[in-house]
Amino acid sequence: MSAAVARPFAALLLVATLLVAALPARAVTLLRDADIEHALAMVAAPVLRGAGLSPSQVKVVMVRDDSLNAFIVDNSTIYIHSGLILKLDTPAQLQAVIAHEAAHITNGHIARRLGNMRNARTATLLGMALAAATGVSTGSGDAAAAIMMGSSASAMNKFMAHTRAEESAADISSIRSMVNAGLDPRGAVEVQEIFRGQELLSAPRQDPYVQTHPLTRDRLRALQGLVAASPGQGAAADPSTVYWFARARAKLAAFLRAPSWTLRRLERLPSKDIALMAEAVAQHRQSDLRRALRAIDGAIALRPNDPFLRDLKGEILLESRQAGPAVQVYGQARQLAPRNAQILAGLGRAQLAAGQYGAALRTLEEARDRDWRDNRVLRDLAVAYAKTGNTGMASEATAQRYALQGRLHDAGIHANRALGLLPRGSAPYRRAQDVADAAARAEKKR
Hints:
Blueprint: H1 3-15, E1 25-28, E2 30-32, H2 34-50, E3 59-63, E4 70-71, E5 77-81, H3 82-87, H4 91-106, H5 109-116, H6 121-131, E6 134-135, E7 147-150, H7 153-160, H8 164-180, H9 186-195, H10 208-212, H11 217-228, H12 239-256, H13 259-264, H14 272-285, H15 289-302, H16 307-319, H17 323-336, H18 341-353, H19 357-370, H20 375-387, H21 391-404, H22 408-419, H23 427-444
Parallel strand pairs: 2-6, 3-5
Antiparallel strand pairs: 1-7, 2-3, 4-5
Organism: Salipiger bermudensis (strain DSM 26914 / JCM 13377 / KCTC 12554 / HTCC2601) (Pelagibaca bermudensis)
GO molecular function, one term: metal ion binding
Keywords: Hydrolase, Metal-binding, Metalloprotease, Protease, Signal, Zinc
């Protein structure tokens, strides 16, 4: 791990001493998929630029949850529930959601809330738990492991809840951002129409979005007025944005909904390559390797320079116990997208399965340097270290993984084991010491 990577991790663990009084656990799952995150980045980029933010500095990721919600807990990541993505019909609607959350960043709402908090435990728990990751999966235990988050639902909602004044300010800023980006702002009203009437329901029946983003008739009318007065109405959607929005929804639906549902709707998808990709996922989930490979190969033939289709093929092969061919296909994906951390992670995982432990170690170390918060990489990296005889580094990587999950007791066990095996004063030793110190403080305050 580079020094630049070690510093934020150490800072996170210094704050982790606040995690002592464990509140009721809550399972949170991030859906990490290179293709879908690229698609979300393509949809978000013009909105973020319109808001004065850098698309390379603000990431959009998914939370696996059927409810409708979107939120931020810091200034670098926008979290969107998978249920909301599947509910929205147009890229303009998704861009409106992103513009609204980006407005909370640019207006300083989260920074102000963090500064005023008397107890940072809730924010720390959110940051640590949401740093962990799983993959868009077929339901296997490795790829769909839940993340234990020591925060009550009420505490989480309290932290993320915006006031009506903040919501009104975010509405104004979001419409301005969409207009600056040359986008049709009417998607903002369409999104709010989805939630209209929710405030009349009892709290247990409301979507989380309404609980954290209060909506009133007056606010809705004000938003409608903002949009009506905006010059961007009727702006044509960018074809690239339309494509990536459709592709993200199709792949997400193919993984989360029944394969039979996906296969019945292939003809409704807007392009042949998207339909073939969705078919490949559905056939793979039905354990039909031959048909899955035929479909994904058809998609690759249509888009031969697309790294994410090869990433999916590698995933299909690896989960079908075809490790050797998976290494080859992931290698092709890496050549097309050499800096993508998740493609690197997939290649390293395939190399591990193929018994190529030295190569896997080098690949996974590179993946960690590019995305140090991916728990799957830390898990696989620990295996690679163990397979190559470096038990000290295996324990250190395992300690990091447990720390990012908020499991400080388990993290402390592995960190102390690493301290007895690693060269004193080395960078890995210092990282293990950070974890051990945080775990010790947590134990004292129990």
